[in-house]
Amino acid sequence: QVQLQESGPGLVKPSETLSLTCTVSGGSITSYYWMWIRQPPGKGLEYIGYFHYNGGTNYNPSLKGRVTISADTSKNQFSLDLSSVTAADTAVYFCARAFRYDSSVYADFWGQGTLVTVSS
Amino acid sequence: DIQMTQSPSSVSASVGDRVTITCRASQGISSWLGWFQQKPGKAPKLLIYAASRLRSGVPPRFSGSGSGTDFTLSISSLQPEDFATYYCQQANSFPSWTFGQGTKVEIK
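Above: the input entities. Below: the structure tokens describing the complete assembly.
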């Protein structure tokens, strides 16, 4: 069974870069889509972006070029960098695996999530 | 962006009740819709994909239907472990996923 675990600082200062890593076990990141999704406290879910070994990366346009997702296949990890953060970026950040079904994609395995607070 | 609107925003129900949640897309998304269950402090769990396909291991009391713009998630006989928040997610315009705002199923 695939397991995902997020890691990284829980507190980031405004204007700095939020950096998180997702470590995957029980499956290789050279298959499937590997996603980042966030959830502000008490609010709904927002897609951030994905990495796909053969398909590259994609990011939510609403994050205006602040996002970079990269991967280290030797460690079976993928990472999120979100630059120039503000309080609006305070959220629980989830990493997830997603599978393709026909022309659509669904996230079937998720990490437990990690709360990142943006504050000075 | 495709907007997803769920109703109701919350519902109070008793164990054994049938519960139905609806999700409407701002434009047609064929059958490319998923339903998730989320409990407090936990990650979302995929229940249904492609509008009506039950994910392996999900109890059959959960079912999904719909296509185009209107979709439903039904729980045929509510169990204590089903009290949670449910989200729909459109997968038509991947990677531009969007989620509904959530429906909280509470104990009456």
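Note for the figure: Chain A touches chain B through 23 residues (CB under 8 Å).
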